[in-house]
């Protein structure tokens, strides 16, 4: 590992979580309210956290949201890293990797290609990002479903990760691995529909231990006990989307046009912070910063 990656904030945070046996949230972020709520929650709970942005955050505002997230992370009193999730376009990866003081890590998501092309493209962009001191993540197999910002694989069949396939991705030089073990993007409908193959996950963890850290995708609808079980089985950063904005979305729906915009933003931020703090407790991140 290069010195630049040894000093990489995302690498340090995720390795500390693996060594400490806890997880921490990766907060999928679409607006300034979520950035503010993430920093406030992290500082209130003295917990590590990562701000996750989809490529949309780059194309929508020409990177302004990225700069805001990075500035917030740098000014925080606890470790906060900024991660680009599900970068599925090579031009976006190149642009993201060259944003000054922008991303600490980038997920190179080529799962919409066949396996061999996925591996080849992943290896290419891992090298490109590492040369710039940016950590990398990839998704062996393919998770089913789609959500805002993750649409390119929505129409494709899911493929569960095997230990053998995980090792092929480790060979590309990735730092973090997002396995498919029954988790999916989007909503499960109900907790009883969540069917996670922890034996498969344990096999992947054993095969890759010491070479990469595991990160969790597809947590919409997860009750606390399932999230905790995922951490016990080796997950470090656990991505959360709807779990941290569902109260905010409901509040906005019920109050938009009825209260001032500043009140809407302030109260919405408080609700997001409340949900993030709960996830920090569930994952064991509280007090770990």
TrEMBL record:
Keywords, sorted A to Z: Glycolysis, Lyase, Metal-binding, Zinc
Cofactor binding description: Binds 2 Zn(2+) ions per subunit. One is catalytic and the other provides a structural contribution.
InterPro entries: Aldolase_TIM, Class_II_FBP_aldolase, FBA_II
Keyword Lyase among record annotations: yes
Active site: 85 (proton donor)
Family according to the record: Belongs to the class II fructose-bisphosphate aldolase family.
Name of protein: Fructose-bisphosphate aldolase
Originating organism: Lipomyces starkeyi NRRL Y-11557
